[in-house]
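Reopening this one. Same input as before:
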Amino acid sequence: MSSDDPSADFDPDYALAHASEPGEAGEARPHRGGRNSRRQPRKPRKITPDYLRRVALHYLDRYSATEASLRAVLHRRIRKSATLHEPDPEIPAWVDALLKDMKRLGFINDDAFAQTRAVSLHRSGKSARAIRQTLVGKGIRGEALDRAMAAAADELGLGEDTRAMDRRAGMDFARRRRLGVFNPLTEQRAERREKDMAALARRGFSYDICTAVVDAHDEDDLRDRLDIDLDF
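Same output, byte for byte:
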């Protein structure tokens, strides 16, 4: 569970250092919070292989990560350390070895991460284009990106048809937002047509999906336009 202090989520030594404060005779006493109380920022630690490993495990205990995102976390810590300590020339090799070990142990798996995230984003109503952009931002590119999209489509029962992912996601998003054909106030559909299309377009859906949602007469007509099976 994250602390209210943001330092707790990024410093693996935070809990140990702030678990208690010494009182008289060495006894522990709780921290006395107040409106004017301020914790002094911790000085950057010197980078060692063991410290990098603790940073990585602390982060992975809280977040799913790709190799690229974990590398970025480590590099941020390394840059912070370099403001106070002379960097060891072996640091790049330490990072590479650590990431290799995290992959060997299964703590980071780009393919599994990308597929799981693609399915999750699809179910939240994201288009394939938006899903791809999100995954690229996490360091998933090239063949790994294509595999993730195909695997997500297959898990969703669509074979490898990623275009079907868009059609279904567009219909889901429109239903949740009551856009176009899903607007229960039929008299408003015409006047809201452009706004509804813009809402769909901002999510990355193609023009044909946008027009199908706003121009369909009813849900069955929309399914026909999008070629979506009735069991969906």
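So the earlier flakiness isn't reproducible anymore. For the record, The first strand starts at residue 21 and ends at 22.
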